[in-house]
Structures are given as C-alpha cells and as structure tokens.
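Attaching the record inline, Q. Sequence:
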Amino acid sequence: MRTYIIKSLFIAMALLVMQACKKDTVTVRSAAEGTAPTLKASATDVQLSSETANDNAVTFTWNKADYGYNAAVQYTLQIDKKGNKFAAAREYALDGTAALEQKFTVGDLNNSLVLMGFTPGASAELEVRVKSELRTNVDTLFSNVIEVKATPYAVIVNYPSLYVPAAYQGWSPATAEKVASILDNKEYEGYVNFADASNLIFKFTTDVNWTTTYGWASSTNTDSYAGGTFAAGANGNLFVPSTGYYLLKANTKNNTWEAQKTTFGIVGDATPGGWDNDTNMSFNATTKEWTVTANLAVGKLKFRANRSWDINYGDNSPANGFLKLNGGDIPITSAGRYTVVLNLSIAGNYTYSITKL
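Structure, as predicted:
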C-alpha cells in the first residue's frame, strides 16, 4: 500500500511539471514569428550613365511585415554582391512610419556600387532584400531576394574622407588635402606634398569645423617614414620627417597613422628601363602631377613608387583611366615618344594619361 501511494505521488508531480512546461511553451514567441515583407523592384537591369545621374534609377518597394499585432517596425534595405550571402551588405535604414520604399538616383546607385568595390565599366551583379525587426536583432524577418544588374561608370567619387590641415597651408581644413576611405571601412589614405622644411606638422580632422581631430599619441620614424598612433582630441601634432611627397594613411578603428615618402616612375617592357629599371617621373607642385616624356615601345607599363612593388598602380579591368593599387598592366600599342602623366591629387580617384607627341 505504501509503495502504491509513493508511485501515485510521483506520477502526480510529473504531470504537474509537464503541465507547467506546456504553459511556458505557449507563452514564448519565436524570434522569427510573423510574415516577412515582399520586396519588388521597378527594374532589375539598371542603366547607369553620368548624363542621367539625377534621374531615378530604381525604386524598391515592399509591404508591411505582419507580426500578428500592431507594432512599430524598423525596415532596412540590404544590398550586397551576388553570392555573398549579405555578409558585407550596404544598409539603408528606414523608419517604419516612412513610405515602404527606397529610391536610388543613377548617381547615388553608381556611387554605392563603386564604394562596394565594383569596377566602373564592368557589370555588377547584386542581391537585394529587406530586413524587418521590432528592434535591433529582435523578431528579425527577411524578405525575398531580388537580383539586380548594373554597370557603374567612372566618376570622381566623393569617398568618405578625413581632412589633413597642416602648418604649411595655415591649418585650414577648408583648403586642406584629404585622405579617403574607398571601401568606407575607416581606413583612409591619400597623397600630400610637404615642400616647406619648416612646416612639416599636420593633423587629421573629420570636417572643416574640427569636430573630431586626431593628434599625436605615439610615433617612430626614419628619414622617409613616420608612423604610430593618434588619439581623438590630442593636442600633439603628427609629422613627416622631411620634405617630400607622402602617402598618408589613417585608421580610425585602430587609431594608427603612417606617412611614407614617395617618388614615382614608370616600369615595364614598353619603357626604356624594362621591368627591372624605373624611368623616373618629376613632380610639378603647381599641377600636382607626376610627368615624364620618354620613348615607349609596344608593350606594357605600370606606375610604381620608390623603385619597389610595394606601391604600384595599374589600370582597372576593363581599363577606364582610373588607377588601381596592384592593378593591371597598361598596354602601349604603338611605339613613339609620349608624355605620361600620373595624378594622385584627388584621394581615391587616381588617374593617368599617356599622350603621343
């Protein structure tokens, strides 16, 4: 009898526990519960050209996500390279009370594609979707994915930049040179000429109002290189060790900076020195261009700094007149005397010209 009572008590307790678990299961909502929005695009083969930069290129629209009750929903349009699984998507956040659409002008979409690393003149394949969520990473739903094609064109791109006010130019951000982050990843670079031996100091700042300024925190240097760390709001100045044309780098994720002195030349089997010996170029401080006039053979050439392959520029593929670090060889199809010009004065928009005389 005693055994029977114990067994009955155990069964009753088990039933109570199971019932409690059942009630808990009913009250917990799934993180992805609801119906995702459906995304549509006004075009999937988008035509881009500089002549229509202000025209509408494509409009993405979607219906409201359904969470089963009224809720304030945050929508984010995501665009990424096809096959990248949105691992590095560019995002456009929209308030749930705004119209359920995102419009792109030709110019805006073109700039976005260039910032995503697509090469002007080459077809870009994209995937687009909408993310809805009640707050960041809560009840996240994703729409269907739409594939879009577009071919960006070459323009002077206004990359995210830092200003480089310096002693030699009166510490004026408004007229200062810039360094640019061509991948919008807080890693900036650009070229600045320091010609005055008595004014070799500078800072980085985010805008013309000195809103956030990066000053010296630590450094090491040689006669042609300086680098170290900087800190936001620090009073100390960054510096280059001597006069010259410098590649400046700033990383605001790691608070590091570098200044590498450079001179440029052309190299390749089209040049007088072949692939082993550079033909030096001369810098013109007024035009901010490197130039050389030389006899060129049928063949190929590239630009490189300091007679080393550490910094070398070639063309994009297909060629579009803009240079790319470690880019392709530039063909010379007719032998003759040429003037070759290298222009690194607009950060992130490096160009060249080769003119037969």
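The two ends are 115 Å apart (CA to CA). Residues 1-31 have pLDDT under 50 and may be disordered.

More tomorrow.
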